[in-house]
Design goal:
- The complex is a heterodimer.
- Chain A is 61% helix and 8% strand.
- Chain B is of the alpha/beta class.
- Chain B is built from ten helices and 15 strands.
- In chain B, a hairpin with a 2-residue loop joins strand 1 and strand 2.
- The chains are: A mainly alpha, B alpha/beta.
Chain lengths: 145, 302
């Protein structure tokens, strides 16, 4: 933290002592990295937009199915049942797409190397690195000596 | 390198996050190493702290060994040939499951055969072993190279086979640890054939172990093995466990069981009393106190 006195024209006009201005110098080592988003902001926006659209379509579709079934029941017309059946199938496909969207997002994260797959291991405190079978072998050898 | 809390897909066996693949490196800290050595040297410590089982009342919980179970483990550990006569539901299989999990983790190149009167029974024991193994922390586990319904194989070349005590079962294998469960319920002829074909290959080894456990079932081959073990003829160490050794089982519980099972079944299933056990009875006709075997008593009643 530095205290610097700057040339202040108002102080001159009113004939007072200029107020020292405090400035903070931020060194490189004190900065904290900002976590990068897992995927680009555009991709995130698109993902959210598609998700909302799918939600809307599924809900509207469900209403439409109810109405189509009412029409079919009232009219007892085979074509009306066929339409209702197709509508149900389309809604089912949309719900599948919603689930597939999550998979797509996960795949993008893995592909861009930004997935949080928890593979980092702290080895600072490790006294042995290797497979458990190797550890057992080493201990048995140690016991035999 | 394996992350113990959240293993990545490449480190786990066939998409099972509870099992580690062969050859996966782990980073062992000093505390973990101390724990590993403690477990390796003391099966009781390992079982008490790491082995979980499914219980009827409390679900999937850590084993809390009863004193007689601890003694049983010590006896299995210190003797090559052990025969165990135990009552129903005293925790004999649980004890053996714990010991086998320890054995496959801290031994190398061993083949364990679990044989029971039915293949289904032995597979049930293997299932319990698998369940207990899956609950172990990954840094303590050996990598898994085979995980099937009837057999498992680990990175340290320890294998477990589960089958029935049919004459051909386990023939041709060099078994390091043979566990025969409910042996008294294997038909006499099957047991004889089994011993003729398999037993020589086990007893010829210098370190191989045999553990026979059962609830008594009349005067058959199991009875003979038990009798010879008591007379120190066949080299088997004997372990006996009945309902009294299970904490929480009271005389009221015994009375209830007697009501359900009947006196004779209760004596056999819970008290582990065999037909040759001497009991004291009072003769109603002449008032004499006599010592006779249960077999004699039942023949008189009938």
């Amino acid at each position: 933290m530095n205290h610097q006195t700057y040339h202040d024209p108002l102080a001159e006009v009113f004939d007072v002592e200029p107020i020292p201005v405090t400035t903070v110098t931020v060194s490189e080592s004190n900065t904290f990295p900002i976590a990068e988003p897992a995927v680009s902001p555009e991709a995130d926006r698109d993902f959210e937009y598609v998700r909302q659209n799918l939600y809307g379509l599924i809900e509207k579709g469900s209403d439409a199915v109810d109405k189509a079934l009412d029409v079919a029941t009232e009219s007892q017309h085979p074509r009306a049942f066929e339409v209702a059946g197709n509508l149900i199938k389309n809604i089912a496909d949309l719900t599948d797409k919603l689930v597939a969207l999550q998979k797509t997002k996960a795949a993008i994260q893995v592909a861009t190397g930004k997935s949080s797959s928890y593979t980092e291991v702290n080895v600072d405190k490790a006294v042995f690195i290797g497979s458990t079978a190797e550890l057992l072998k080493a201990l048995k050898k140690h016991d035999a000596q | 390198m394996l992350n113990n809390e959240r293993p990545s897909k490449k480190d786990i066996y066939l998409n099972n996050p509870k099992l580690k693949k062969v050859g996966v490196s782990v980073s062992i800290t000093e505390e973990q190493l101390e724990e590993y050595v403690k477990c390796k040297n003391d099966p009781i410590y390992f079982i008490q702290n790491y082995v979980k089982i499914v219980t009827l009342d409390r679900g999937f919980v850590q084993i809390d060994l009863y004193p007689f179970q601890e003694q049983t483990i010590r006896d299995i550990q210190n003797n090559r040939f052990v025969v165990m006569k135990a009552g129903r539901q005293v925790g004999k299989t649980t004890t053996v499951v714990g010991y086998i999990v320890w054995y496959i983790l801290f031994e190398e190149d061993k083949l364990i055969a679990l044989l029971a009167n039915k293949a289904k029974t032995s597979r049930e024991i293997l299932n319990r072993i698998k369940l207990a193994y899956e609950s172990l922390p990954l840094w303590l586990q050996q990598g898994v190279s085979g995980w099937n319904k009837g057999d498992i194989e680990l990175e340290n070349k320890c294998r477990i086979l589960a089958d029935s005590t049919a004459s051909s079962a386990a023939r041709g294998y060099s078994i390091n640890f043979l566990y025969l469960d409910e042996f008294a319920f294997v038909p006499n002829n099957v047991a004889e054939e089994f011993f003729t074909s398999v037993y020589p290959t086990i007893s010829s080894g210098k370190t191989s172990k045999v553990l026979i456990s059962s609830t008594p079932n009349g005067m058959n081959h199991f009875y003979r093995i038990w009798k010879e073990a008591e007379e120190e003829v066949n080299g088997f160490h004997t372990i006996e466990a009945n309902w009294r050794q299970v904490p929480g089982r009271t005389e009221e519980w015994a009375l209830e069981q007697k009501r359900v099972l009947g006196e004779q079944k209760f004596l056999q299933e819970m008290e582990c009393v065999g037909q040759d056990t001497m009991i004291t009875v009072r003769n109603k006709i002449n008032g004499n106190i006599e010592k006779i075997t249960i077999e004699e008593l039942y023949s008189k009643i009938e």
